[in-house]
Amino acid sequence: MRRFRGSLGFWTALFALTWLFALDAAPALAGLASSRVTGATAIVSARDADLIAVQRALENKVLAQKLRDYGVAPGEVEARLASLTDADLHVLASSSKGLPSGGDDALGTIIALLVIVVLVMVILKLMDKKVVIK
Description:
Shape: flat
Helix content: 55-70%
């Protein structure tokens, strides 16, 4: 059984091939966009970048509470950071990269726990087990 007869089949095939090769003519190109320095995020030197990294780590509530427990005032921390050498500041910034930046993420923890509970319930349902919540 022929779907197209005569020249209609030829022209349909020619159109399909032309369309296929026209879409595949140019490969996709990707690259990194260049960044611009804005007034709010002007990082001029490596010291400024290290100082920003340490200040973000100091925003952590647990770390700030520990410093207060040791009797260190926030003003003293800022003064000490300003007096550090570039090498010491870089070592401190490198070691603080594993710490979470900013405040605690309690909402993220709660959501993760809820997702785990739902997954366990779904797995138990798939295994024909009863889920009883009292």
